[in-house]
C-alpha cells in the first residue's frame, strides 16, 4: 500500500488496516516509566508500594499493554534526598529516554521532582508526596498527584476532632514540609469549625530523629485536652512507646494522620494506641468488588496481605495506563491533556484527576484503633471520598497561581 492510499484509508476509518500501522508509527519498544522513590529510607511503605506497582503493570501487560506496547518501569532509589531524586530524574529522561516520571514519597522530595518536571516540561505522576504545595502553591502544568493531600486528610480528621469536647490542643509533627503542612491545615480547619479551641503546644522533631522522651515531656507540660499527631514510621513507634510509658495519652483523645495504615500498626503490635482517631487502611474488612479482586490477586502473587503502600503503587500504575490509553499516544503534551480530568478505577473505587489543580479524588479511610489478636486494627471506619474534602474552585484558584 503506497503512502497516499494508506493515509486515505486511515482517515476513512478502516481500523483493521490503520491500527497496526499506527502502532508501528509510535514505536515497537515498551512504554517506559521512570519511577523515583525513597526505597531504602522508607522500606515499610515502599516495599509494598513497589509490589503493588509491579502487580498492576503485570496485569496491564497481560491485557495487551497500551498502544500495542508493553509497560516497563525503571526504578530509582533517592534515599530520601531531594538532590538524588533530581539527579535520577535527569538520568531517566536523558539517558533512559523514559516517557514520563512517577513516584515520590517524602514531600520535600516530591517538590524537587515537581520543580524538575516544570523546568524540563516533562510529565510527573506523583504517587505519595502529601504536601498541598505540590498541586497548589508550587503546582504546575506537568505535575499530578494521586494520594489525598495533607489538606484533605486534615479535613477528614477535623470532621471527627470537632465532635470532641476538647478545647486545649497540642500538636506534634516531623519538622519538614509534610508535617508543617498537616499542622497548618489542622489548626486552620479546626479553628474554623470550633472557634473556641486553643493550641497550647507544638513540637516539631527532626524526621527520623525524634527524641521521644523529651517530646512527650514537653507535650505533657502543656496540659492539653487532646493531641494531634503527624509522626509516622520509626518516629511514631518511639512516640507511642514513650507516651504510653509516661501516661501522656491517659484521659486524652488523640487524632493522628496515617497511623491506621498497616505499615505502622504492624510495627507497633500490641502497643498500638487504642482509641486514637486515625486515617488508614482497614484492608481486611473492605468488601467492595474492586478491593476484593485486588486483595486476591495480591495474595496470589506475594502470599501476603496488602498495605496502603500496595494500594498507592497499584493505583498510580493503573492511572498511568488509563492516561496512555486516553491519550492514544506517549507524546508528553498529549499525556498531560489526558491526565487533566482523567477518570480511572482505583482500588478504592472510581476517581478523577481534577483539571483545576491535578489532585486526584482518591479518598482515605477514617476510624479508630482497636486491638485484635494482639495487633492494631481500624474499627468504626468509614470511607471519606476525596472529592468531598477539597475546597471549592474559587478558593483553589487563590491557592494555585498556575491555575
Write a concise keyword list for the protein shown above.
single chain, 403 residues, alpha/beta, 5-stranded parallel β-sheet
Descriptive account of the structure:
- This protein has 403 residues and is of the alpha/beta class.
- 44% of the residues lie in helices and 19% in strands.
- The protein is built from 14 helices and 14 strands.
- The chain has helices at residues 3-11, 15-26, 43-62, 82-94, 107-120, 150-161, 177-193, 212-221, 233-246, 262-268, 289-302, 308-327, 332-339, 393-399; strands at 31-37, 71-77, 100-103, 124-126, 143-145, 168-172, 198-203, 226-229, 253-260, 277-280, 343-346, 349-352, 364-372, 375-384.
- The strands form three sheets. A seven-stranded mixed β-sheet has the order 7-6-8-9-10-13-14, with helices on both faces. A five-stranded parallel β-sheet has the order 2-1-3-4-5, with helices on both faces. It has a two-stranded antiparallel ribbon with strand order 11-12.
- Strand 8 (226-229), helix 9 and strand 9 (253-260) form a beta-alpha-beta unit.
- The chain starts with a helix and ends with a helix.
Gist?
The protein is an alpha/beta fold. 44% of the residues lie in helices and 19% in strands. The strands form three sheets. Strands 7-6-8-9-10-13-14 form a seven-stranded mixed β-sheet, with helices on both faces.
Amino acid at each position: 500500500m503506497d503512502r497516499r492510499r494508506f493515509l486515505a484509508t486511515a482517515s476513512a476509518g478502516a481500523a483493521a488496516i490503520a491500527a497496526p500501522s499506527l502502532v508501528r508509527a509510535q514505536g515497537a519498544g515498551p512504554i517506559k516509566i521512570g519511577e523515583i522513590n525513597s526505597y531504602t529510607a522508607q522500606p515499610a511503605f515502599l516495599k509494598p508500594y513497589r509490589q503493588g506497582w509491579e502487580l498492576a503493570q503485570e496485569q496491564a501487560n497481560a491485557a495487551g499493554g497500551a498502544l500495542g506496547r508493553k509497560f516497563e518501569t525503571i526504578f530509582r532509589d533517592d534515599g530520601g534526598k531531594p538532590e538524588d531524586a533530581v539527579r535520577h530524574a535527569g538520568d531517566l529522561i536523558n539517558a533512559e529516554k523514559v516517557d514520563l516520571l512517577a513516584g515520590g514519597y517524602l514531600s520535600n522530595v516530591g517538590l524537587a521532582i515537581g520543580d524538575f518536571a516544570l523546568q524540563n516540561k516533562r510529565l510527573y505522576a506523583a504517587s505519595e508526596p502529601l504536601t498541598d504545595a505540590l498541586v497548589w502553591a508550587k503546582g504546575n502544568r506537568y505535575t499530578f498527584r494521586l494520594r489525598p493531600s495533607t489538606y484533605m486528610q486534615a479535613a477528614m480528621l477535623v470532621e471527627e476532632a470537632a465532635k470532641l469536647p476538647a478545647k486545649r490542643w497540642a500538636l506534634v509533627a516531623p519538622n519538614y514540609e509534610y508535617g508543617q503542612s498537616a499542622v497548618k491545615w489542622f489548626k486552620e480547619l479546626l479553628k474554623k469549625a470550633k472557634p473556641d479551641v486553643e493550641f497550647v503546644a507544638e513540637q516539631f522533631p527532626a524526621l527520623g530523629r525524634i527524641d521521644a522522651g523529651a517530646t512527650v515531656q514537653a507535650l505533657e507540660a502543656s496540659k492539653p485536652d487532646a493531641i494531634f499527631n503527624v509522626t509516622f514510621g520509626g518516629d511514631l513507634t518511639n512516640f507511642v512507646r514513650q507516651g504510653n510509658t509516661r501516661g501522656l495519652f491517659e484521659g486524652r483523645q488523640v487524632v493522628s494522620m496515617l497511623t491506621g495504615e498497616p505499615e505502622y500498626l504492624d510495627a507497633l503490635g500490641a502497643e498500638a494506641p487504642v482509641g486514637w482517631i486515625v486515617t488508614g487502611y482497614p484492608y481486611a474488612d473492605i468488601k467492595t468488588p474492586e478491593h476484593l479482586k485486588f486483595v486476591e490477586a495480591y495474595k496470589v502473587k506475594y502470599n501476603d496481605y496488602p498495605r496502603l503502600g500496595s494500594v498507592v503503587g497499584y493505583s498510580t500504575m493503573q492511572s498511568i495506563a488509563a492516561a496512555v490509553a486516553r491519550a492514544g499516544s506517549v507524546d508528553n503534551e498529549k499525556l498531560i491533556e489526558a491526565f487533566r480530568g482523567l477518570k480511572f478505577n482505583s482500588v478504592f473505587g472510581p476517581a478523577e484527576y481534577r483539571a483545576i489543580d491535578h489532585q486526584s479524588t482518591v479518598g482515605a479511610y477514617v476510624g479508630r484503633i482497636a486491638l485484635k489478636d494482639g495487633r492494631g486494627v481500624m474499627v468504626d471506619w468509614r470511607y471519606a471520598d476525596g472529592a468531598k474534602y477539597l475546597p471549592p474552585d474559587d478558593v483553589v484558584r487563590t491557592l494555585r497561581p498556575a491555575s
